[in-house]
Automatic annotation (TrEMBL):
Origin species: Gallus gallus
Domain D-glutamate cyclase-like C-terminal: 301-569
Annotated localization: Mitochondrion matrix
GO CC, alphabetical: mitochondrial matrix
Principal EC category: lyase
Task of the protein: D-glutamate cyclase that converts D-glutamate to 5-oxo-D-proline.
Name of protein: D-glutamate cyclase, mitochondrial
Gene: C14orf159
One annotated GO molecular function: D-glutamate cyclase activity
Species lineage: Eukaryota, Metazoa, Chordata, Craniata, Vertebrata
């Protein structure tokens, strides 16, 4: 019997010859390809082959198709010189009408049935383990001498005919300091799942317990490791099960087919294709991806809005990178709540200033274009004004449809929790992200002040309480947009406000947001968020990560996104 160490040193054709002779007794061959591609195998009746191929192309992140055989063809010449579908894998699984009915060492006994069947060879994530190691990234399943952990998720694949299932992912623990290196190492590999589809809390994929994988072995995280998930070709097996074909075969988990194709590292060609990794939430832990080119454009936007036309010293409040992280978080959100309103004109009713509402509408318009749920909460006394603003925005085409207008009043100790969550349950938040733009913020003494230190508390509803409550609710991220330090959310930069802004020791907002977008004019911050969301929506790296590598790119919707961008009509005089 050949030891696994000797197996590693052999060329693929020699390994296959030993497998054909049925001389191996090992638990899996993960990590034993030594620089050669491995493939998952799915074998179906020929009547299902065309639909399954379409299913693979529609979900190519999980199912990169290496080869499709002809009916009854037992070889795959483009992958290997001496292959035999019936004996290429150390172990197979048999499915009848979607039910697993046994493991097989060979399919030779089914040669007659195989004449009417088609074999699909799919790239798998084990193909880049050597690449990860070459980049100095530990591969924990190889260290622990076990198979990778694979999990069923709550992410639906793109369905084709009878082929429909949820995505299956492979998890590899990656040290936090190596996340970007892992993404770079895997994102451009051909005929493999490519870049990760999620980094961070497994619950965001619907995975409840990492210690209980659906397939493979439990791989243990080391201190400082982040769970990183790649789309997995075992998704194809789930599709076979759900299809309920009378007869189907697949490889057994960990017993992939060894090809003669080398695992090559492909160089990234431009900043458009170079991915960056950014942490967008600590609770739950969540990282996102964006191209270096898109990140650079958003950084330029951030620099432009940081100009200080009033020379108030906001340069000391700027938080580089916050605009990008805010927009990455918004891009992942399903439902967003926006608040605005800062009473300054006391001779008018209502006394609102015009900085804030235009920026809020710009954000809302882009969120609608991105098919997010969006609502606005404002002071009860300003409801009629905001209702008219929204109605006019719909009439002139800024908004696709009216934005729900809400108000908030404190009626009990749990009012904020009840407002933000279904039945007050913090595990069921109604909103993923709260944005305050040019919204009066509560100071340390509990009052609200304008820039001249005038107390305007009697004009302000306690919407700050929503932001304070959000700090205790996992899954809700907050952003504050301001231009003076007394706006809701600017508590994140309150020390700088007190030190550098006139009257800052009194007026500084004490309520912090997760992200602080500081601008020379708050409306500019709103416009920048809308523009940055457009940039992200046209970034293929971010788009693929956002859709978990299932389905197709959303590029046909660019015209819808473009029409939602804030614009100014130029007039000649």
């Amino acid at each position: 019997m050949l030891l696994t160490g000797g197996l590693k040193s052999l060329l693929p054709h020699a390994r296959r010859r030993i497998i054909h002779c049925n001389r191996l007794r090992i638990s899996n061959i993960s990590g034993m390809a030594e620089g050669y591609k491995q493939a998952s195998v799915v074998i179906l009746h020929k009547s299902l082959a065309d639909d399954f191929e379409k299913f693979c192309h529609a979900n190519s992140g999980a199912l990169p198709l290496l080869y499709r055989s002809k009916p009854g063809e037992w070889k795959c010449p483009s992958l290997s010189s001496d292959s035999d579908t019936r004996t290429d894998c150390l172990q197979y699984r048999k499915y009848e009408h979607g039910a697993f009915t046994g493991s097989l060492r060979s399919l030779k006994d089914y040669s007659e049935q195989l004449k009417d069947m088609v074999a699909f060879y799919l790239g798998c994530s084990s193909n880049f383990e050597k690449v990860l190691q070459a980049a100095g990234i530990p591969v924990r399943n190889i260290e622990q001498k076990c198979n990778i952990s694979m999990y069923k998720t709550a992410v639906p694949c793109y369905s084709i005919s009878n082929f429909c299932c949820n995505l299956v992912v492979a998890m590899r623990p990656i040290p936090e300091s190596k996340l970007e290196a892992a993404v770079l190492a895997t994102s451009e590999l051909k005929e493999a799942p490519g870049a990760p589809i999620h980094m961070g809390n497994p619950g965001l994929l619907g995975i409840q317990d990492l210690s209980k994988p659906d397939y493979g072995d439990s791989v243990h995280l080391q201190p400082g490791d982040i769970p990183v998930f790649w789309a997995c070709s075992v998704t194809g097996i789930e599709a076979v099960i759900n299809c309920r074909s009378p007869l189907a075969f697949t490889h057994s988990f960990g017993y992939m087919f060894n090809t003669d194709l080398k695992n090559d590292r492909f160089a990234l060609r431009s900043s458009r294709e170079v991915p960056q990794v950014h942490c967008i939430s600590q609770d739950p832990l969540h990282y996102s991806m964006v191209s270096a080119e898109a990140a650079k454009k958003i950084k330029t936007l951030e620099s432009l809005i940081g100009i200080d036309p009033g020379n108030r010293g906001i340069v000391h409040l700027l938080r580089p990178g916050e605009l990008l992280k805010t927009c990455l978080s918004l891009s992942h959100a399903r439902s967003v709540l926006i608040t605005t309103g800062f009473p300054t004109h006391f001779n008018y009713e209502p006394p609102e200033e015009n900085d804030g509402p235009p920026g809020a509408l710009a954000i809302a318009a882009m969120l609608q274009a991105l098919e997010k749920d969006v609502a606005i909460v404002t002071d009860q006394r300003a409801t009629d004004l905001n209702k008219k603003i929204i109605e006019e925005a719909v009439q002139i085409g800024i908004l696709k449809e009216p934005v729900p207008l809400l108000s908030y009043q404190r009626e009990s100790a749990n009012s904020a929790l009840t407002f933000l969550c279904e039945n007050g349950n913090p595990r069921r938040p109604r909103f993923d992200h709260l944005i305050a733009i040019e919204r009066a913020g509560m100071a340390a003494d509990g009052n609200y002040y304008n820039a001249r230190k005038v107390n305007i508390k009697h004009l302000v509803d306690p919407i700050d309480e929503l932001f304070l409550a959000a700090q205790t609710i996992p899954g809700i991220t907050t952003t504050g947009v301001g231009d003076g330090g007394n706006e809701l959310g600017m508590g994140k930069v309150k020390d700088s406000v007190k030190k550098h802004i006139k009257n800052g020791d009194v007026i500084a907002c004490d309520v912090a947001a997760d992200f602080a977008v500081v601008a020379g004019v708050s409306n500019w911050g709103g416009y920048a968020i809308a523009c940055a969301l457009y940039i992200l929506s046209t970034c293929e790296i971010h788009n693929c990560y956002l859709r978990r590598a299932v389905g197709f790119s959303q590029s046909p919707k660019k015209t819808v996104w473009l029409s939602a961008l804030p614009s100014v009509t130029k007039k000649s005089f």
